[in-house]
C-alpha cells in the first residue's frame, strides 16, 4: 500500500503550464487524489489570495501554503507570519539607496514604491467576489510605504543589475529578524525569521497528524529547497535546473507544460 498521505505542490514551473493556469487534466487527477483521502497542498511563493483562488478552481478541499510559508491554511485557521515593522523600515531604507523594485505583500494587499505592474500587483483579483478586500497600492513614497505596509508576510525584491542585487541582498541579510531566499537570478524573497515552505509544511502536517515521511513534495525552484528538506519523498520537475534535480529523490518524466504532475500523481496514488 502507498504510504503517502499528503502531496505538496509548487505552482509556477510545476503545476502551472506556461500560461500560469492549471490544466484540466491536472485538475481531474487532483480531485481523484482528494477523493482517495490524500491531503493536497498548493505550496507557493505567490500571495495568499492568488494561491487560494487557484485552489478553489480545483476543489475546496485543497489547502494552501503561500508567500513561501508566510501565510497558510491550518484547518479553518489562516496563519500569518509577519515581518516585524522594524525590519520593514530597515529594508525600505536599503531600497531607497538602490531604487530596486520591491513589492510588500500581506494576506490580501500589496504595497509598492513603483508604478503599477500587473505582473506583481494583481489588481484584477479585486473583481473576484472571493476576494472583496484585495487591493494594490503602487506609487507610494518611501515614507508612505513605511506607514502603510502592515502585516507583511513576504517581500519580493528584484533588479536586472545582478551585481547591485547581490550587494543589496547581502546588506538585507544582515538585518535581524528576517529570512532571505532565492527565487531566480534577478530577484529574491524576504520573509520573517524561520519562515519557509518547509517549516510551514511541518506545522500543517503536525496539525493533520501526518508524519513528514508520508509527505510527497513536487517542485522546480530554489524556493522549494526547504520543502524538499522536510518531505519524505521529493520529485523535481524535469524542467528544473540540474542543481535542483540533484537534491531530489527522482525527476519527473514530463515537464510542467506536458502535465508532468498529473503523471506523477497517477503513478503514486491512482494506479495502485
Automatic annotation (TrEMBL):
InterPro entries assigned to the protein according to its UniProt record, in alphabetical order: Cof (IPR000150), HAD-like_sf (IPR036412), HAD-SF_hydro_IIB (IPR006379), HAD_sf (IPR023214)
Assigned GO CC terms: cytosol
Classification via Pfam families: Hydrolase_3 (PF08282)
Keyword Hydrolase: yes
Keyword Disulfide bond applies: no
GO molecular function: magnesium ion binding; phosphatase activity
Keywords: Hydrolase
Classification via Gene3D superfamilies: 3.30.1240.10, HAD superfamily/HAD-like (3.40.50.1000)
Source domain of life: Bacteria
Matches recorded under NCBIfam families: Cof-subfamily (TIGR00099), HAD-SF-IIB (TIGR01484)
Protein name: Cof-like hydrolase
Classification lineage: Bacteria, Bacillati, Bacillota, Erysipelotrichia, Erysipelotrichales
Amino acid at each position: 500500500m502507498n504510504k503517502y498521505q499528503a502531496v505538496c505542490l509548487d505552482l509556477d514551473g510545476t503545476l502551472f503550464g506556461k500560461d500560469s493556469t492549471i490544466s484540466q487534466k491536472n485538475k481531474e487527477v487532483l480531485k481523484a487524489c482528494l477523493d482517495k483521502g490524500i491531503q493536497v497542498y498548493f505550496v507557493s511563493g505567490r500571495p495568499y489570495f492568488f494561491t487560494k483562488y487557484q485552489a478553489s478552481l480545483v476543489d475546496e478541499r485543497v489547502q494552501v501554503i503561500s508567500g513561501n510559508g508566510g501565510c497558510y491554511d491550518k484547518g479553518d485557521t489562516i496563519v500569518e507570519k509577519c515581518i516585524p515593522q522594524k525590519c520593514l523600515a530597515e529594508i525600505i531604507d536599503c531600497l531607497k539607496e538602490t531604487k530596486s523594485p520591491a513589492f510588500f505583500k500581506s494576506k490580501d494587499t500589496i504595497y509598492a514604491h513603483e508604478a503599477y505592474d500587473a505582473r506583481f500587483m494583481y489588481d484584477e483579483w479585486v473583481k473576484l467576489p472571493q476576494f472583496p478586500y484585495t487591493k494594490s497600492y503602487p506609487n507610494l513614497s518611501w515614507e508612505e510605504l513605511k506607514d502603510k505596509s502592515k502585516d507583511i508576510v513576504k517581500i519580493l525584491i528584484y533588479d536586472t543589475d545582478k551585481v547591485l542585487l547581490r550587494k543589496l541582498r547581502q546588506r538585507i541579510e544582515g538585518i535581524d529578524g528576517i529570512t532571505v531566499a532565492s527565487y531566480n537570478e534577478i530577484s529574491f524573497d524576504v520573509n520573517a525569521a524561520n519562515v519557509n515552505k518547509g517549516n510551514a509544511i511541518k506545522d500543517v502536517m503536525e496539525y493533520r497528524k501526518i508524519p513528514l515521511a508520508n509527505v510527497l513534495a513536487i517542485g522546480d525552484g530554489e524556493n522549494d529547497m526547504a520543502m524538499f528538506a522536510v518531505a519524505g519523498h521529493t520529485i523535481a520537475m524535469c524542467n528544473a535546473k540540474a542543481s535542483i534535480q540533484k537534491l531530489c529523490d527522482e525527476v519527473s518524466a514530463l515537464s510542467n507544460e506536458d502535465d508532468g504532475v498529473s503523471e506523477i500523481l497517477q503513478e503514486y496514488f491512482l494506479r495502485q
